Amino acid sequence: MEKIDQIFERYLQKKFFSGGVCSISINGQEAFLKAYGKADTVKNKVMKATTIFDLASITKIFTTTIILHLVTNKKISLSTTLKHCLPITSRHSTLANITINQLLSHSSGLKAWHPFYTKLPNNNFFEVLAEIDLIEENRQEVMYSDLNFMLLGEVIKEQTNETLETTIQKMIREPLELSTLTYQPSSHSDIAATEYGNRIEMKMCEDRNLVFDGWRPTHQPISGTVNDGNAFYFFSGESGHAGLFSNIEDLIKLGNLYMKGGVYKGRQLISKELVDYSISQRVHNRGLGWEVNGIFPEGAGHTGFTGTAIWIVPEKQLTVVILTNRLHVEKPKNINPFRKEIVETVLKEFEKLKGDL
User: Mapping DSSP to helix (H, G, I), strand (E, B) and coil, where does residue 295 land?
Assistant: First the structure.
């Protein structure tokens, strides 16, 4: 599609990112797939449709999917409190009565972010949680928080008695026949580079007067390990909020699982009722895991800090994935204007795209 090409080229020239991939699926059929620019400017690697990306917060949608699978199979419910599904939290008055629903919808009131790695060498998540102020001072109905999904990652580990990598393999990668989804892709050569060290988080820590001396070098881009500081330094690459890598094909399959009401090849992985509930507006601009409204005028979606985005519109049986390496530039920018243009173009051209299939 020429219009999508033009949008990508314009933002590439303005250095909003070094490269990207876009895929559009309608009724489970590929309507568009194209790669642009460079995956790694230092190694001069061209972006391919198969390039693997650090998904950043799109990891939260995979975490959501596992939680909804556990709810479907009656292991937990949306009203289950943390003290009942993660017993270690029963000693923590702030956490004990928070529900799975509140964590998924970002309505728990927990603060948006905390650099847990500044407490190293203490790597006990629950001990650090007990030491820090968890409640956001300017409390709002919805506070988008990584802590919610770190806790959901711990719930998954408690309920499955497995690592997150093993659970992802058993509950998502194998059932959906995904080829690249993993927390640890470093042996793979075709990976999009991200930031030059954790420059952004370094500034965030400095602004909070918090000290950390284990930063990765800022003269070379991160590639093959997760960009997110908490996921990398504190959780050794595996967390419920960030850490997963995959290519665009695997993300389209995830979107299509929700398009098909939680069914993949005749197998009901998530109940249709839960799927519908998760992608509709629950609290403010949130579903369960998913975001509604904002840059997604129809359906639901989610973005990732590294420049990733997934968007689904059930009424149109439409799944769109836009992956960029927006941090792999000298001065990272907010790419929401770019995402918005792509989304609006897809909606305008939808009938033509559908007709071309």
Answer: coil
Transcribe 157-188 into DSSP letters: HHHHSS-HHHHHIIIIITTTT-SS-BS--TT-
Structural tokens at position 199: 């420059």
Region at 208 (left for phi over 0; alpha for psi -120 to 50; beta for the rest): alpha
- CB within 8 Å of 280: residues ≥ 6 apart: 287, 292, 300
Question: DSSP states of 99-154 as a string?
Answer: BHHHHHTT-S-B-S---GGGGTT---HHHHHHHS--B-SS--S----HHHHHHHHH
CA angle 101, 107, 111 (to 5 degrees): 125
The label of the residue with tokens 């949680």 reads: 129
Q: Which residue has the tokens 């556990």?
A: 70
Say what the pLDDT of residue 1 is.
81
The residues with which 293 forms a beta bridge, in sequence order, are 296
Q: Can you give the pLDDT at residue 194?
A: 97
Task: Tell me if the pTM is above 0.85.
Answer: yes
pLDDT, tens only, 136-158: 766 668 899 999 999 999 999 99
| Structural contact between residues 325 and 17, judged by C-beta atoms closer than 8 angstroms | yes
Residues of the chain with pLDDT under 70: 137-140, 187-188
Asked if 281 and 287 count as a contact pair (C-beta separation under 8 A), the reply is yes
Peptide bond into 185 cis (omega under 30): no
How many whole angstroms separate alpha carbon 320 and alpha carbon 181? 18
Question: H or E element: which one contains 299?
Answer: strand 296-304
Instruction: Determine the Cα–Cα distance for residues 289 and 254; give it in Å rounded to an integer.
Output: 13
**CA–CA separation, 288 and 265 (whole Å):** 24
Closest among 338, 256, 262 to 71, alpha carbons compared: 262
347 Cβ neighbours under 8 A, 6+ residues apart: 297, 298
- Could you report the per-residue pLDDT of 240-285, keeping only the tens digit for each? 999 999 999 999 999 999 999 999 999 999 999 999 999 999 988 9
Q: What residues have CB less than 8 Å from 10, skipping those under 6 apart?
A: none
Q: How far apart are CA 133 and CA 122, in angstroms?
A: 17
8 Å CB contact between 259 and 317: yes
Residue with tokens 């509950």: 171
